[in-house]
Amino acid sequence: MSSSDIFIGETIGTAILILLGGGVCAAVTLKASKARNAGWLAITFGWGFAVLTAVYTSAPLSGAHLNPAVTLALAIKDKDFSNLPVYWGGQLLGAMIGATLVWVAYYGQFHAHLTDKEIVGGPGAQATATKAVEAQETGAGPVLGIFSTGPEIRNVVQNLLTEIIGTVVLVLAVLTQGLNDKGNGLGTIGALITSLVVVGIGLSLGGPTGYAINPARDLGPRIVHALLPLPNKGGSDWSYAWIPVVGPLIGAAIAAGIYNVAFA
After folding, report:
1. pTM of the entire structure?
2. What digits encode the pLDDT tens for the residues 85-105?
3. Distance of CA 49 to the CA centre of its chain
4. Distance CA 66, CA 17 (A)
5. C-alpha–C-alpha distance, residues 243 and 249, integer Å
6. Side-chain-side CA neighbours of residue 109 (13 Å)
7. What whole-number distance in Å separates Cα of residue 200 and Cα of residue 249?
8. DSSP letter string over 196-243?
9. In contact, 108 and 209? CB cutoff 8 Å
10. Phi and psi at residue 123, in whole multiples of 5°?
11. What is the per-residue pLDDT across 52-97, written as a single tens digit (0 to 9) for each?
């Protein structure tokens, strides 16, 4: 794979991943959406299908890493870090493109949600109990959860460990079952396996932090949230932003170490 193939493949694949994954979060969150309040099952399966679609689309070009943690683990496994910057650059750019497309697709719903007094408060708002929980949190605006993750209980050690544990599960699944014949990305069956693993992680481990398990998936959309001209959007919670970046990278390194010791 050439550097241009890797960059283009990761950009397209990660954009699709975030468009569909962020899209299901928008569908469940925004007031004027037909899928409003569809719940956690819809989100977890939506993200699983997002992974499946993105992998099938980008695998021929880049091997479909779509996740800096997966790229780091493969680099550690193969002791080859030469393509790391190209993969990471494409993944971050793709995540930002995907998040922007979510905003475009739900433009009217974003405006209706963020100008609703029950959501953002202000004069004329109903009782505080009717407002979205996010609007009452310091540092996180009422639609930040569409773009990036956040903890239900803010505890740095627990939040970091949750992201580490979830990423170890994901990366071990990729390394042991999901690689193609060349060992440099996800194959056809690997795409299905990995998408189901992502659903399983979401159902079992996603409750505490929203299971980023992917630094680009969280950081790219968070940057977009900070830049978009959304009315009453609130903060982007930058004080938490390092956890869904550092946690998955640590988890990837641990998983790669486990693989090299136990499976290689």
Report:
1. 0.93
2. 999 999 999 999 999 999 999
3. 13
4. 8
5. 10
6. 20
7. 20
8. HHHHHHHHHH-TTT-----HHHHHHHHHHHHHS--TT---B-TTTTTH
9. no
10. -55, 135
11. 999 999 999 999 999 999 999 999 999 999 999 999 999 999 999 9
Round to whole Å and give the CA distance between 61 and 222: 27
Output the pLDDT for position 190. Answer: 85
What's the confidence (pLDDT) of residue 188? 73
Q: What is the pLDDT of residues 189-219, one digit of tens each?
A: 888 999 999 999 999 999 999 999 999 999 9
Of 58, 95, 35, the closest CA to residue 244 belongs to: 95
Structure tokens at 6: 């890797």
Residues 214, 71 contacting (CB under 8 angstroms): no
Q: Is 14 exposed, middle or buried (0-12, 13-18, 19+ CB in 10 A)?
A: buried
Cα distance between residue 96 and residue 218, in whole Å: 10
Residue 165: Cβ within 10 Å count:
18
* Matching residue, tokens 């975030």: 18
Q: How many helices (H) and strands (E) does the chain have?
A: 11, 0
Token pair 């990036």 is found at: 148
Burial string for 214-251 (b: 16+ CB within 10 Å, else e) reads bbbbbbbbbbbbbeeebebbbebbeebbebbbebbbbb
First-residue to last-residue Cα distance in the chain = 24
